[in-house]
């Protein structure tokens, strides 16, 4: 039996099941990295959110691989996949489903919408109206859909990977605060470095690497990995550190909306998933520090004064506030 060091200096056992779990997760990560060149951190964050039972928001300018990342993650998992192209004329019933009258039985029959899948890709989510965006609120939080007074459970595991363009671009609607708060993490792809872009140019002359992606993990293996992440230990001192970070955002002078209690829960779950991927059965303060910006920043609303002083976008200002909170919060000692 292998061991890993703990914060107390004593080794903690790593069982054969834990090893199998990490191996399965590594297969998914390698599969995604064959498609996304030069973005290992973004690929790792997508996998972390998947194992933490969260939803991922990918925001950036067009053409940097947002949809490609979502498709690569989806195709690496042996489950059902649906893609929704969000447009201004998309209706909530297109997402959740609709009851249709069947003349042969003289009854209404429910026709499931595109959200009924293990992994749902919401492409350019902020190009649909807020009314249509709100169709995802119940789905993402409760894993169910209510239509005409009846509730339908969504498949498990269930994850939404949504892409969006910056709100400054034409034809976009800002995501409501309640919608953004349901995304566990928000990441930005960014432009690839010259070496990665050259490699991409040569590799995609004849075909797309996405065509070669096949499922490398079954839904049963994914469920086992998710269950293992839930058992990762979060010590009382790290819990207090997490709460101190979240609480500091609620009273920060540069913010008019701090992190919600949902953010606290999701940061803890994401930290456990990251610890599992790192081969540990316990969470370190480093996990929280690494995840604080992608998990918290997109939920925060900076004041107008803070935006004016920084001269940056809302997301950049929020990220800077989270970094300042991390710098001012004492780190617990082992």
Can you tell me about this structure?
The protein is of the alpha/beta class and 334 residues long. It has two domains: 15-231, 3-Layer(aba) Sandwich (Rossmann fold), CATH 3.40.50; 233-334, Orthogonal Bundle (Helicase, Ruva Protein, domain 3). Helix content is 44%, strand content 18%. The protein is built from 14 helices and 15 strands. The chain has helices spanning 16-33, 40-51, 66-75, 92-96, 130-133, 137-142, 177-181, 194-203, 219-230, 236-250, 261-277, 285-296, 304-310, 314-328, and strands spanning 2-5, 11-14, 56-59, 77-78, 81-85, 97-102, 107-112, 119-123, 144-147, 150-153, 159-164, 185-187, 217-218, 255-257, 301-302. A five-stranded parallel sheet has the order 5-8-11-3-12. It has a two-stranded antiparallel ribbon with strand order 1-2. Strands 4-13 form a two-stranded parallel sheet. Strand 6 and strand 7 (107-112) form a beta hairpin. Helix 2 packs across helix 11 (261-277) and helix 10 (236-250) packs parallel to helix 12 (285-296). The longest helix has 18 residues, at 16-33. The chain starts with a strand and ends in a 6-residue tail after the last helix. 39% of the residues are buried. Mean pLDDT is 86; it is low at 1-17.
């Amino acid at each position: 039996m292998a061991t890993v060091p703990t914060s107390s200096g004593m080794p903690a056992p790593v069982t054969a099941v834990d090893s199998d779990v990490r191996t399965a997760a590594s297969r998914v990560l390698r599969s995604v990295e064959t498609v996304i060149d030069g973005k290992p951190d973004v690929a790792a964050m997508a996998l972390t959110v998947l194992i933490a039972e969260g939803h991922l928001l990918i925001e950036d300018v067009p053409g940097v691989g947002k949809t490609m990342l979502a498709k690569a993650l989806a195709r690496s998992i042996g489950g059902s996949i649906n893609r929704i192209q969000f447009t201004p004329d998309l209706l909530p019933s297109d997402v959740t489903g609709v009851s249709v009258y069947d003349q042969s039985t003289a009854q209404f029959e429910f026709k499931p919408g595109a959200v009924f899948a293990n992994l749902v890709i919401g492409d350019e989510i902020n190009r649909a109206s807020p009314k249509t965006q709100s169709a995802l609120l119940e789905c993402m939080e409760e894993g169910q859909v209510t239509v005409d007074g009846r509730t339908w459970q969504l498949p498990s595991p269930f994850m939404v990977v949504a892409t969006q363009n910056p709100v400054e671009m034409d034809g976009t609607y800002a995501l409501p605060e309640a919608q953004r708060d349901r995304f566990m993490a928000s990441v930005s792809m960014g432009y690839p470095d010259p070496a990665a872009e050259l490699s991409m140019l040569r590799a995609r002359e004849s075909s797309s690497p996405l065509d070669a992606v096949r499922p490398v993990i079954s839904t049963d293996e994914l469920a086992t990995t998710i269950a293992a992440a839930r058992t990762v230990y979060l010590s009382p001192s790290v819990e207090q550190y997490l709460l101190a970070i979240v609480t500091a955002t609620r009273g920060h002078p540069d913010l008019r909306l701090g992190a919600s209690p949902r953010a606290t829960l999701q940061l803890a779950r994401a930290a456990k998933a990251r610890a599992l991927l790192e081969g540990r059965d316990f969470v370190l303060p480093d996990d929280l520090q690494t995840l604080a910006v992608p998990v918290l920043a997109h939920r925060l609303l900076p004041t107008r004064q803070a935006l004016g002083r920084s001269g940056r976008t809302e997301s950049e200002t929020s990220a800077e506030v989270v970094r300042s909170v991390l710098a001012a919060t004492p780190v617990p000692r082992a």
